[in-house]
Design brief:
19% helix; single chain; 3 domains; binds FE2/S2 (inorganic) cluster; 275 residues; Elongation Factor Tu (Ef-tu), domain 3; alpha/beta; 33% strand; seven-stranded mixed β-sheet; 5 helices; binds flavin-adenine dinucleotide
């Protein structure tokens, strides 16, 4: 496995914005300056405060998509107040950020990997694909399954194709790729595979994570999912991000997704939400 010991979090009171541009309808890419020695592991995230004033007061969690040469990139979908302010920010404005935070994906150095992304769940899996590609020096065995409601939710496919043996694209409205959910090509793909050798990682809406967990459980395939909860501190203090999980002995307990997640073995998740 790679990234057994994720890097320690750091605080950046004034990270300068280098670029902030819309990359697809409703989605933007933010590039911010960080020290050149900043590192992270795929699946880790940042807390981003968009304003040095009081509102919005809390940071917003954002998965790290890429870091190179002191340039950190994350992508965001505008859904509310914080991301709305973020979308208004310009080059040379500053962000308050702390990270990298959380448990990353435990990606295998060898063997086939299936990365399943739903909509804005793409960035942490983009970093997983890029990291695997750099370590392995090959795209062979890296499969990316990327779905959205429409073509606007599925972007950077050309970039992903550089790191992956194959990128399977779906849209619920059929406007790009195969019409339907991302689990459709994934289930087809599994029919032809040796189940023992595959490692699966997913990030996306709760029903999608639940669905891939069920598929993998039925086939006995190891699967990690990145779960989303609202987060206030990102460092385990506020208890705002708890989720009910099972230990390996089957005992139920509440975990803080910001420190014991967001990536978790899907067999440990107690799927109790309908949304
Ligand atoms: C570990 C982690 C990584 C994330 N990575 C990304 C990313 O890379 N790109 C991205 O666009 N988003 C990401 N998110 C979600 C992002 O943090 C929220 O969309 C953001 O906080 C919304 O802030 P807002 O002020 O714009 O919305 P608000 O005004 O606070 O809320 C608007 C709506 O979004 C919902 N919402 C807010 N936060 C969340 C959340 N965490 N989970 C589910 N629903 C939420 C609210 O219930 C509400 O309906 C991530 C979340 C987590 C926990
Ligand atoms: S966000 Fe505060 S404990 Fe997780």
């Amino acid at each position: 496995m790679i990234h057994t010991f994720p890097p320690k979090p750091r605080y950046f009171p004034s990270a300068k914005i280098l670029l902030n541009e819309e990359v697809s309808l409703g989605y933007s890419m933010m590039m911010a300056a960080v020290p050149k020695d900043f590192t992270f592991a795929p699946g880790q995230f940042l807390m981003v405060r968009v304003n040095h004033q009081l509102s919005p007061f809390l940071g917003r969690p954002m998965a790290i998509m890429s870091v190179e040469d002191g340039k950190l990139i994350f992508c965001y979908r505008v859904v509310g107040k914080g991301t709305g302010v973020l979308a208004q920010m310009r080059k040379n404005d500053v962000l308050q950020m702390w990270g990298p935070l959380g448990i990353p994906f435990s990606l295998p150095e060898n063997g086939p990997v299936a990365l399943l992304a739903g909509g804005v769940g793409m960035p942490p899996l983009y970093s997983a694909a890029e990291t695997l590609f750099k370590i392995r020096k090959s795209a062979k065995g890296i499969y990316f399954f990327y779905g959205g409601r429409t073509s606007a939710d599925v972007f950077f496919v050309d970039k992903l194709e550089r790191f992956c043996e194959k990128v399977f694209v779906t849209a619920e409205d059929g406007s790009i790729g195969v019409r339907g959910l991302v689990t459709l090509p994934f289930s087809e793909f599994l029919k032809d595979r040796q189940r023992d050798s595959l490692h699966v990682a997913g990030c996306g809406p709760y029903p999608m994570m639940k669905s891939i967990a069920e598929i993998c459980s039925q086939k006995g395939i190891p699967c990690e999912v990145s779960l989303e909860e609202r987060m206030a501190c990102g460092v385990g203090v506020c208890l705002g991000c708890t989720a009910l999980c099972a230990s390996s002995q089957g005992e139920k307990s509440w975990i803080r997704l910001c420190v014991e997640g967001p990536v978790i073995d899907s067999s440990r998740v107690i799927w109790n939400r309908s949304r």
